Every structure is written in structure tokens, then in C-alpha cells.
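Please, structure for the following, as C-alpha cells.
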Amino acid sequence: MIDVGQPAPDFTLPAHNGPAVNLSDFKGEKNVVLSFHVFSFTGG
């Protein structure tokens, strides 16, 4: 588990509209908000 204030570890996720996205691609460039939704846009 990551404590508040610690940097997130780098990871890669598939994008819905193109190549995979790495968290490190944004380091020092933009603020990033991570939001996870279980069964987003489904009835689940």
C-alpha cells in the first residue's frame, strides 16, 4: 500500500483509443488523477 504523499509507482495500462499509456510519461509534465470504476458504464 502507498501512503499519502508518496509518489505512485510507474505502471502501464492499455488505452481505449490507441497505444498503452505509462504513468511516467506524465512525470513533470502534467498533474494526474487516478480514478478506478468497477464495471464502469455497465449494469454490474
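Strands lie at 12-15, 18-22. Residues 18 and 42 are 22 Å apart (CA to CA).
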